[in-house]
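Write out the 3D structure for:
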Amino acid sequence: MNDLKAESAPPEGEPLRGRTPPRGTLLTVALVLLAGAGLWHGVRQANDDSAAPDGELSSATARAEIMAQAGKLAATAMSYRAAQADQDIAAAEKLMTPAMRKKYERGLPPAADRAQQAKAKVTVKASVASLSGKDGCQGGDCAVSIVSAAEDRARVLVFVDRAATSTNSKDSVASPTWALLTLVNQGGGWLIDDMASA
């Protein structure tokens, strides 16, 4: 039994030379590193809030930008000055897909009526309603809500205040309305692909 020599620990302060740590220690270190990498990846994914797993945009910034753009698109598309009808129609159609342009044109007054409206100075001013009831809206005070939004397509509900004026009438005619816009992202910009009263 004296043949087996017990290994003694090296003197204190002296490095372990020629000794390898036990396999269990190496396995534990590898598992800790692997778990740390997995945790880092999970936290990184959770912080990347641009889109949910189903493709729905979850970034507050991206959603706010879509709502702001939808408000501007709706106001332009729903405004009309008969005296500048050609300019206003062209400006609105630049914001629409070809399919929406056709639908929009079907809803316009006939050219003969536009001439009469121009004489009467018919103007329809559309603006996004304010949630607080103020005249005009700013940022989060606008009556705009996303129904659904992905990177390339969004459905947005906009409450629009429309006021029509004419020299034939002393009073303006208010016609508040909800508009449901379907937007498509083409070339980095949003266009109206459909617009319907809600």
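The longest helix spans residues 23-47.
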